[in-house]
Specification:
The chain is α+β, with helices and mostly antiparallel strands. Helices cover 48% and strands 15% of the residues. Strands 1, 2, 3, 4, 5, 6, 7, 8, 9, 10, 11, 12, 13 and 14 form a 14-stranded mixed beta sheet that branches. A two-stranded antiparallel ribbon has the order 15-16. The N and C termini lie far apart (91 Å).
Length: 550
């Protein structure tokens, strides 16, 4: 008990001395705290970003058993990838019929820029999804209104997201209301979907039965031939080894693809790997990249190291003043370990103060950070049980790394040297400080140069001549088939306006051509086909966009 009381008294004494030194040397404390605050704030921001990136699609209750089926076609290489997120339409029903390892399978497809009409009001919707009803068995999708088991049974049913319901109906109950899709089909609202989190590789504003997509595309349900594509997801039963199931899919791949002369193999892709580890053709939305996560993590760590070295340098520079204090303590019987604990404790106390201030800085900067990275990261992540050990480790790591070198110099010096004030006069101390300063400046210079390179690259992207005119051009999407058939009349009417200089019609824009054909080309060494992306345009297209023919 006496030992415990003595240690408690010593800790209390160390705290008083640390606080007294902070108050007495305000300039030194301000520089140290400012450096640690900035370093910790950068590290916390990037840590929040990394945690958010790794959380993609993990809000699904059974995400570890959810897989997307992709097409691996080694003889094709579009956009630097030999795999496709699309699969043939009949795949999901076939999987359910043949493989008992699969608990549920479903298809989905998505169209953007779809017109929804309610009464006299019109709305454009980007995330318009066609899905099988089994989608609710696979994903954790919650309906605020409606029954997920019956909401998509009727082909004319429609489920709208919470945000879309508020946008169209305000506070009114939308269940049973009639919406018109593209001025053609009437759809009855049968459910309201809770907004899907942003950390998802798909986000749904509108959901309608998949059979509607088949009718729009005029596809046969049993057609395996190319051109009939969708996204296929499956939920495996508990205990099923995905590698074993993937081996079984080899036989199915051979059966359905060989007869159509397609070299393709069906592969299982874990849904949790899609955002950071998937770089294939036909993704629903733009994914992240694990390389960028590693890069940002490295930069954050380097910035934190710079802040720690800054503390070391300042602490070492002041060590001759604290050396006299340490010398007197040694004379009256203080041990080296006690002095180490004291000075490391001061460093950790300074780190704790800096950490508290850095949380405030993160809260101020986070909205700008989210706007730049187009994320919805919140401070709530800091309070998670998974993040708490990381924060404690961060404080201890920063405090110990920052204070260990000055504490070592002061604690292990001879009392006579400390009292004379010649603590850091030796060549070894000078060499150590020089190494720290050079390392700190080297990291800083590398980061500054890298930032300038990125800035110049962004300026280059914004100002580069992309080969066509972008300015002063408005895009009008024609939705009515009658207007499309009479495009010349539309162009004539638009040209009657004196402010319109030119009009052209096309099915794609110059920067967004996704349709392609494959043609034989002369002298091909292996008989391979040449992929050519194609757009259908009128005779004014080249002049309007200022294209130059070579």
């Amino acid at each position: 008990i006496l030992t415990a009381k003595w240690r408690l008294s010593m800790l209390k004494n160390y705290g008083k001395i640390a606080w007294r030194n902070l108050r007495r040397h305000k300039g030194y404390s301000l520089i140290n705290i400012s450096g640690l605050v900035l370093g910790l704030a950068c590290f916390i921001l990037v840590s929040l970003y990394v945690q958010y990136e790794f959380s993609y699609d993990k809000y699904h209750e059974r995400y570890d058993r959810i897989f997307r089926i992709i097409n691996h076609q080694p003889e094709k290489n579009y956009m630097n990838s030999d795999s496709f997120a699309w699969t043939q339409g009949p795949l999901a029903p076939t999987l359910m019929d043949r493989y008992p390892e699969i608990e549920s399978a479903a298809r989905m497809n998505m169209l953007d820029n779809q017109l929804i009409v309610y009464g006299k009001d019109s709305f454009l919707v980007d995330d318009f999804y066609f899905v099988d009803p089994e989608i609710f068995n696979i994903f954790s999708l919650e309906l605020l209104h409606g029954n997920p088991e019956t909401a998509l049974i009727n082909p004319n049913s429609i489920i709208i997201s919470e945000a879309t319901a508020r946008r169209i109906f305000g506070r009114r109950n939308p269940i049973g209301k009639i919406l018109k899709h593209e001025n053609s089909s009437d759809l009855i609202v049968t459910g309201v979907l809770r907004n899907i989190p942003q950390n998802s590789h798909f986000r749904m504003e509108i959901i309608v039965p998949f059979i509607n997509f088949m009718e729009i595309q005029e596809m046969d349900a049993d057609r395996w031939t190319p051109g009939w594509y969708c996204y296929t997801y499956c939920l495996l039963k508990e205990g099923v080894d995905p590698d074993v199931l993937e081996d079984k899919l080899i036989a199915l791949s051979a059966e359905v693809f060989k007869k159509n002369n397609i070299e393709s193999r069906l592969v299982l892709q874990p849904i949790e790997k899609i955002h950071l580890h998937s770089n294939i053709n036909g993704e629903i939305s733009a994914n992240g990249n694990i390389k960028y996560v590693y890069l940002f993590s490295s930069i954050a760590f380097l910035i934190l190291i710079i802040a720690c070295i800054n503390y070391m340098n300042l602490g070492t520079a002041r060590s001759f003043q604290r050396g006299r204090e340490a010398g007197i303590r040694k004379v009256v019987g203080a041990q080296k370990s006690q002095l180490m604990k004291q000075f490391l404790g001061e460093s950790i106390l300074l780190t704790v103060i800096s950490f508290i201030l850095s949380i405030g800085v993160v809260g101020i900067v986070l909205p700008l950070f989210n706007a730049f990275f187009e994320r919805e990261i919140t401070m709530i992540l800091l309070g998670g049980l998974k993040f708490l050990p990381i924060l404690l480790t961060l404080i201890l790591f920063t405090g110990i790394i920052s204070g260990v070198y000055p504490a070592f110099i002061i604690s292990y010096s001879k009392p006579i040297v400390s009292l004379r004030g010649s603590l850091i006069q030796g060549s070894k101390g000078f060499a150590a400080r020089s190494i720290l300063v050079v390392f700190q400046f080297a990291i800083s210079i590398v980061l500054i140069i890298s930032t300038q390179v990125v800035k110049n690259q962004l300026i280059f992207i914004q100002n580069k001549d992309v080969g066509y005119t972008k300015d002063q051009i408005l895009i009008l999407r024609l939705r009515d088939r009658e207007l499309m058939r009479n495009i010349d009349t539309v162009k004539t009417e638009l040209l009657k306006n004196s402010q319109v200089l030119a009009v052209s019609g096309s099915n794609y824009l110059p920067n967004n051509i996704t349709s392609f054909n494959r043609f034989p080309w002369p002298n091909s060494p292996d008989g391979s086909l040449l992929t050519i992306y194609t757009a259908y345009v009128d005779q004014n297209f080249i002049d309007l966009y200022g294209l130059k023919l070579v």
